Amino acid sequence: MLEFGLEDWEKKSAEHIKLYKNFLQRADKNKVLRQLPKLHGEAFDKIDCLQCAACCKNYSPRFKTPDIKRISKHFKLKESVFIDKYLDLDSEGDYVSKTSPCPFLGDDNYCKIYDQRPSDCHRFPYTDEDVLLKRPAITLKNATFCPAVHFVLEKLIDKKST
């Protein structure tokens, strides 16, 4: 289900990273934010996350307190047991998965806890919210492994030049 020249999106994204960085620094925030819902929808009309799952295979979301409470309840585990079994503290003091790929990622790329997944997972790749602009370092990192971020940035840059 990869379209719009996505077969070599990783190479294009790497080649355009400086262009993306420049765009994110100079973007008209209000104009971009108005475009994001439509572009986000277009991206996910063309991209099937289940074909990729690079986010779940290579990176961990932050597990915030409400996420830990919800997921540990789902597993019928005490929060401390859930944390000991699945999570570590990173250098920023956030709980993240101990393992990569995510322990909740199935062989079929489906999330085993989809309905209880962390809010970071639910919101990822932030292509429909202001995080895209507010946290450019995250956006640029995400553009290296998420075709949806690449798609949205390419469309934003293309719209800017037209």
Query: Regions with pLDDT < 50 over 5+ consecutive residues?
Result: none
**Approximately what portion of the residues adopt beta-strand conformation?**
under 5%
How would you sum up the major sheet? 2 strands, antiparallel
**Oligomeric state of the chains present here:** single chain
- Using the CA coordinates, give the radius of gyration: 17 Å
Q: Strand arrangement, largest sheet?
A: 1-2
Net shape: elongated
- The termini sit apart by 27 Å
Structurally, the number of domains stands at 2
Name the average pLDDT. 93
**What is the N-to-C succession of helices and strands?**
HHHHHHEEHHHH
Helix segment tally: 10
Helical fraction: 55-70%
Structural class, by secondary structure, is mainly alpha
Number of strands: 2
Structure explained in plain terms:
- It is built from ten helices and two strands, in the order ααααααββαααα.
- By secondary structure, the protein is mostly helical.
- The protein folds into two domains: 88 residues, no CATH class; 62 residues, no CATH class.
- It has a two-stranded antiparallel sheet with strand order 1-2.
- A hairpin with a 5-residue loop joins β1 and β2.
- α3 crosses α10.
- The longest helix is centred in the N-terminal third of the chain and has 18 residues.
- The chain is elongated.
Question: What's the gist of this structure?
Answer:
By secondary structure, the protein is mainly alpha-helical. Helices cover 56% and strands 4% of the residues. The protein folds into two domains: 6-55 and 124-161, no CATH class; 62-123, no CATH class.
